[in-house]
Every structure is written in C-alpha cells, then in structure tokens.
Amino acid sequence: MTRPTPETLAHSARRARAAAGPAPDTDAARVAATPAAPAVRPPAPAQVSGAGSLVRSLEALGVDVVFGIPGGAILPAYDPLYDSTVRHILVRHEQGAGHAATGYAQATGRVGVCMATSGPGATNLVTPIADAYMDSVPVVAITGQVARPAIGTDAFQEADIQGITLPITKHNFLVQNAEEIPQVLAEAFHLASTGRPGPVLVDIPKDVLQAPTTFTWPPTLDLPGYRPTLHPHGKQIREAARLMTSSRRPVLYVGGGVLKAGATEGLRRLAELTGIPVVTTLMALGAFPDSHPQHLGMPGMHGTVAAVYGLQKADLIVALGARFDDRVTGRLDSFAPDAAVVHADIDPAEIGKNRRADVPVVGDAQHVIDELIAAVEAERAAGRTADLADWWTQLDDLRKRYPLGYEEPADGTLSPQYVIKRLGEIAGPDAIYVAGVGQHQMWASQFISYEKPYTWLNSGGLGTMGYAVPAAMGAKVGKPDTVVWGIDGDGCFQMTNQELATCALEGIPVKIAVINNGNLGMVRQWQTLFYGERYSNTDLGTHKHRIPDFVKLAEALGCVGLRCENAADVDKTIAAAMEINDAPVVIDFVVGKDAMVWPMVAAGTSNDEIMFARGVRPAFDEDEL
After folding, report:
1. Could you tell me if 351 and 328 lie in one domain?
2. Residue among 443, 415, 423 at smallest CA distance from 593
3. What percent of the chain clears pLDDT 90, i.e. is strictly above it?
4. CA-to-CA distance for 567 and 420, rounded, in angstroms?
5. Record's PANTHER family (predicted)?
6. Domain for residue 228, yes or no?
7. Whether residue 324 lies in the annotated active site
8. 6 pLDDT exceeds 60?
C-alpha cells in the first residue's frame, strides 16, 4: 500500500494541507464515513478474500449504493457484492458511474462511490474524477488493477491509473496487501469527506482481491500530516469584523465552500446582521435565497449587472469558500481595483492564489461564519456600525435598471429562457435541478429561483458536457422522494443519455428537459459574437434532420418521451411529466437556435466591459459607483 505522507497529500499547490491545526473535524455530518469505535470489544477477525474485505469495509462505512461496471480485474469484488446489503447500480458507461457518484454526493452530502475495472474502465473515470476535484465533491473511486506481478509489463488492460489521476485527486492509493484494505478504505472515505472535500482513488490489483485475509473493523487511521484547520485565528476574525463594520461598499462573495460546510443558516444570519449585499457563485446557488432582498445574484461572466458591478466597485470583498475563479473575476488585473479582501477558505493553498488577501482566514466556513457573527456583534456593541444606505441606493438602482430578462425570438420559435423559467416555477423550490454545460446551464442558473441549499447541481469548474443525465440519476438515488429535473442541451444529452436505460431498469424516475436548439449553443454564440457568424461544425442536425429523434430515443431507452415546440404547450407538457413518477421522462423542447445568454463578460476582458445585450453595455455615470 502507498502510505500517504505530507508530500503526497499535498501533491499540488492546491492541496497543500499540511498546515498545523486542530484534529480533523468530528462533526457527524462530515465524518459519518469515519469508522466508529467498538462498543465493547472488537469481533473476532473474519476469514475472507481481499474482495470480501473490500465489500465488508463498504458495508461498515455505511455505503448504501455503488455505481459501476464489472470487468476482469475488478471481477473478484463483484462476487461478494452479489450477497451484500450495498446496492450496486449497473451503469452503461464508467463516465456515467463517476458522474452519478458526484450527483449522489452533491445532493446528499455523503460520499459517492463508483467502481470500474482496470485499463479503459479506470480511464473512463478520469473525467468525472477531474470534475469532482474541480468542484470539491467527496467521491471514492475503486478500480481494479492487473495482478501485482504484471504491473509495469503493459499487461492486458493495464493502465497506471494512480499516476494518471495524481493531479486530479485529493489522494490516491495502490493497495499492495489484502490485509490493508479496511484501513485504506477508511482512510479514503475520511480524506474524501473532511477538510476540503474531494475525490480519492483506491486501486486494487486483482491478486490482492483474490488473496485470503482476515477482516477486522474498525481499523486505525494513519494519515501523517493531514490535519485540516477548522477554526480560524481569532485575530484575523476580529480584523475582518472591523473591516465589515467600517467599509462603505462591502460585498459578501459566497462560493461553494459554504454549501460544503453546511453553513447556509449562518450565512443568512451574518448577512442580515451586517446588511451587506450577497453574491453567490455558480457553485453556491441556493446557499442564500435568490428572493432575499440582500441577494444581488450570481457574479461573473454571465452574472447579473448588479452582482458584477457590486464586486467591481466594492471597497471590501469578504470571500467565503470561494476561489476567485477566472469566470468571476474576468481579467484579473482589473478586478475590484479598490477592494480590500478578506479571504476565508479551508484550503490554505487557495488564499492568495489568484488575488492577494489583506486578511487571510484559514478555516471551515461554518466556524468562520459563526465566529464572524460573534465578532461583528462585539463591534456593534462598541458602537461601530457601517452606514450602507448610499451603497444600497446605488445597487438597487442597478437592479431596477438592469434586471435579468430575455427577448422573445423574432422568428416565432420557442424561447429556451421561457421554458426553463416555467419549469422552475412549476416544479418549485423543493425540486433538485441538475444542469449540463452550456447555454442551458446559464439560463437555468439565471431563470430558476433557488431558495434552498443543495437544489442546484452542475459541473462548474471543469464544465463537463454529459454531466446532467448521470448526475441526475445519482441525485435521484440519493433523494428518492425528491423531484429531480435534469436540464440538458441537445449536445450534452447525446454524450451520456444511455444512462436513461439504467434509470428505466433500476426504477430511477428522473425527468430530463432537453433544450434542443439544434446546435452546440454556447459555441454558436461565440461564433456569432467573435467569429463573424462563421458557424463551423456547430449544427448537430437535431433540428434539420431530427437525428436523433429524442422522443423515439427516449422510448427506445425505456422512458416516456414527450415533445413541445410552442409556448402554448409548455405548461401542460411540464405538468404531464410531473404526473409520471414510475418511469423516467424526457421532454424534447424544440427551441430557437439564435437565443443568447446575457449579460456577458467576454473571456479575457474586464468586468467593466460587461455587455447587457449584443453591442449594448450598461450606461453608468462617471460618479455613480
């Protein structure tokens, strides 16, 4: 077994987590996967194979579902799995297994688990592993490997998946002895679910799975150097509170780390206590209610004008679990030039990575927010309170003048924004919405109101087309009593729609809205704006030739297929899908091909150059902000 060390655990700057701090989080919600101490005395060791030890470890860790596909090297694990209490869902492609594990984890907060064989099975997991890494999702990927004597010989279906995934995992293991399997699994789940969450890969050679061993539980964790800092430094918190109560144009810049920490209630208390405006990134939608009067919306490339300019003209940015991503900052050297920055993150490698922090705060977002509330209350008790009246007057004026909206297509085709808006209104705030990547993703982030946490899932950092269908499947498995809508484009849908066969056979009644504009929509938008309307290789043929026919395809995959082509039928089509709860449903919404996502900050440009519509920039007085 490859032992984790401070160096391997921090194999990239992003995962430099060896800073001294308190012991790993003991909050039950975040370490539910960590083995518990025995009540009286450990049971006698059980004689099993390595594969049996693997399956028993999964059971002991409380795993209820694994998404995977069997194959030669992992096949020994599938025999004890046959009799296990762990449900195995047979997917149609390993990429689907990985995204399903991610969707399950994002919807439930628990560790998602996927399994694949060696070689191509393992490499098909690379994209969802990278996706989970970018979005800090707790996933454990278990892969088979060729037998130990064959490693390094270019054996059949051999791939160095440990080396391949080194840059895109929080940590990974190559198990060398069957006796180590319980410890490795326990450590993998602990690493995935604590600190900054992320994917962990466990690679197990076939002969290790076949070897006789004993199973005992719980094992002892041995993770030298892994001590996530959860509680922030008091001095930094006090300085942050001082700035928050003395600035004139502050903004709370909220990222996905707030959701990962379960800190949404604290965020609301902090915002209402201070009166500071809030922006939530694409990964944080739902962390703060969209309808709250202090919410300016989403910042960034396709954010609201008020959110983009609120950050741009702030004199203080309090970043909570956010990483100053390029899609938020635009051209970095022109981002928020007059703002002091309080940057709070559990990962010290993020602080100062893109934007210098005036007050760096390392800690778990829940603890940071709770301690900020106490420090701000102390400042207020001492008579120090910020006057934000002028700031709010300016921001409210921006919201009034530049609300999110869209124009109906001039050619009479169905508006995609209207479809998504009505879908959100009919399905309501309790549904889970899972988006693919592209224009439909941005419209779903803009025109559905997210009032509750963990109701919006998407591929934010990696931007993975094909994410929606399998992730929706995983979310529905994790939340079987919740309505789950996948919102996909006709390009994304054709990458992973085979998992609808899995849904049909496994009784997973997801609902999929295909926003079918006949094109790779976001690419076409860029070709319209920046490439002189030269539409090179973006027409998918789903309009012109109806290849494929999505209704027939849905039916062939065991789903109910519906089609909607005009605004008058949108509501009744969505309502019909909502009534079907015993099978997956696919709606082919045939929409216009020329709709665009606005507002927009073009890649590589300053947020000051935000466009409200094609060729239209918001008009601001020189002294307005």
Report:
1. yes
2. 415
3. 90
4. 12
5. ACETOLACTATE SYNTHASE CATALYTIC SUBUNIT, MITOCHONDRIAL, THIAMINE PYROPHOSPHATE ENZYMES
6. no
7. no
8. no
